[in-house]
Amino acid sequence: MDGSKINDKAVTEEMLLEEGYRKYSGEDLDIYYSKDICAHIGNCVRGNKAVFEVGRRPWIIADNGGIEEDIRVINTCPSGALKYIRKDGK
Ligand code: SF4
């Protein structure tokens, strides 16, 4: 699933916060997570434990992965619980 969009529309921070996503800020991109949407399938944790680690606080640390790596893992989330917004305008 494309983590930069919802229903084919590019996500905005306003949209995500309104939908109940929580923000995990990084230097190059911000990751957003909705626990209500999460299906606990674990692709994120299996994908990169440095970025996504259940039980750690915060459980998502965007800067522990590169921008492309973060996006790769986010896009494996099947439920849409993970979204991202790049800060480089790409
Ligand atoms: S990949 Fe998505 S649905 Fe699966 S545990 Fe991670 S956030 Fe939840």
Short description:
By secondary structure, the chain is of the alpha+beta class. The chain has helices spanning 13-18, 43-47, 67-74, and strands spanning 5-6, 9-10, 22-24, 29-33, 82-86.
Q: How would you sum up this structure, described in words?
A:
The chain is an alpha+beta fold. It has helices at residues 13-18, 43-47, 67-74, and strands at 5-6, 9-10, 22-24, 29-33, 82-86. The chain is built from 3 helices and 5 strands, in the order ββαββααβ. The strands form 2 sheets. The chain has a 3-stranded antiparallel beta sheet with strand order 3-4-5. Strands 1-2 form a two-stranded antiparallel ribbon. Strand 3 (22-24) and strand 4 form a beta hairpin. The longest helix is centred in the last third of the chain and has 8 residues, at 67-74. The protein starts with a strand and ends with a strand. The model has no long low-confidence stretch (mean pLDDT 97). Residues 38-44, 77, 79, 81-82 line the site of iron/sulfur cluster (SF4). InterPro entries: Divergent_4Fe-4S_mono-cluster. Residues 24-87 form the Divergent 4Fe-4S mono-cluster domain. This is Divergent 4Fe-4S mono-cluster domain-containing protein.
